[in-house]
Amino acid sequence: GQSLEQPSEVTAVEGAIVQINCTYQTSGFYGLSWYQQHDGGAPTFLSYNALDGLEETGRFSSFLSRSDSYGYLLLQELQMKDSASYFCAAFGGSQGNLIFGKGTKLSVKP
Amino acid sequence: GAGVSQSPSNKVTEKGKDVELRCDPISGHTALYWYRQSLGQGLEFLIYFQGNSAPDKSGLPSDRFSAERTGGSVSTLTIQRTQQEDSAVYLCASSFGEAYNEQFFGPGTRLTVL
User: Fold this and answer.
1) Which residues pair with A4 in a beta bridge?
2) Closest chain B residue by Cα to residue A41
């Protein structure tokens, strides 16, 4: 089967750093994506890791370790607007589509 | 268009009725995806098209669900004999090339089956 596990909820304070972990089990694997979704909104793309290591885009970074079937999203200098759900998604199934995790709801407190 | 559009934005129907949901992808995007999201849940993959072809339809929850894409552009998701458990937000996304490329999502259609 194919599955991705991530924490259901994370709470952090403004200005802090938070890490959202994702472990995956897929039949075939090419890479890990991350999407952000605000309440009532559509998911928006954040990053894609095909290779091991850290990818940095502004305040957000994403990491992948293929040997550990593990990745994380790192959010720095948290802002209130970062309160949203964050989904990891794996690409590589025989269907050629993304398989999404159930999402992590991040709440940023003042 | 500027982004992925979906219609209708909201649909309320009675149990047993058929519904059609429409998706207009970004022009030039070869891949199109349908997902379903129940309240507070993750995205459940339904089906994807590469051009007009759907390589795998096994994500569709039952034979009441069908989808087609014509002209490599607009797609329609049809749900026959709707059930209350079909109530969800149906999201469409498109991308250029493979699924790992950035997928651009539409605003979704909120379906409520009474």
Assistant:
1) A24
2) B107
Q: What does the alpha-carbon distance between residue B69 and residue A63 come to, in Å, rounded to a whole number?
A: 36
Tell me how many degrees the CA angle A62-A66-A68 measures, rounded to the nearest 5.
Answer: 100
Q: Enter the tokens of residue A40.
A: 């009532």
Residues B23-66 pLDDT 10s: 999 998 999 999 999 987 889 989 989 888 887 777 899 999 99
B72 at interface of A, judged by CB pairs closer than 8 A: no
Q: Which two tokens stand for residue B29?
A: 């995007």
Smallest Cβ distance to B105: which of A43, A50, A97? Answer: A43
Name the H helices within A14-101: none
| Of A73, A42, A1, A4, nearest in space to B102 by CA | A42
Q: Which of B36, B43, B105 to mutate to test the interface with A (most CBs of A within 10 A)?
A: B43
8-state DSSP, B93: E
Rama region for A97: left / alpha / beta (φ>0; ψ in -120 to 50; rest): beta
CA distances from B79 to A4, A85, B17, B66 (A): 28, 28, 9, 7
